[in-house]
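Service request form, structural biology core

Requester: graduate student, group of Dr. S.
Request type: structure prediction, single chain
Budget code: on file
Notes: please return the result as C-alpha cells.

Sequence provided:
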Amino acid sequence: MGFAKKGKGTPPHCPPPGRISASALRDREVVSVSDGRRLGYVCDMEIDISTGRICSLTVPGELKFFGFARKNTWIIPWDAIVRIGNDIILVNTACVEQRGGDGDL
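Core staff response, request fulfilled:
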C-alpha cells in the first residue's frame, strides 16, 4: 500500500512539477547570465512569512585570508533569477546586491 497504488507518480516528499525544495536550491551553483561568472552556492534564503514566498537567496562569496573571512556576499532578489536548471541557477547580476568585502560584481 504505497503511493504508487494511489495513482501518483512521485513520492509524497517530492515537490510537484514547477516547484523545488529548499534543500535542492542549496545544491545548485549560482551563475551570472551576463558573464558566466560563478558566484557560489545558495546558503540561505529570505522568506516573506505573510505570503510564504521566497524574497531573495544569499550566496556567500569566496573565502580569503586563509579561509577566515569571506570576500563578499551576494543577496539575489527572486526577480533577478533568470532560470533554475538541473545544476545551476542563472541570475541577472545587474539586480544583485553585494554586501561586505571589496570585490566587484
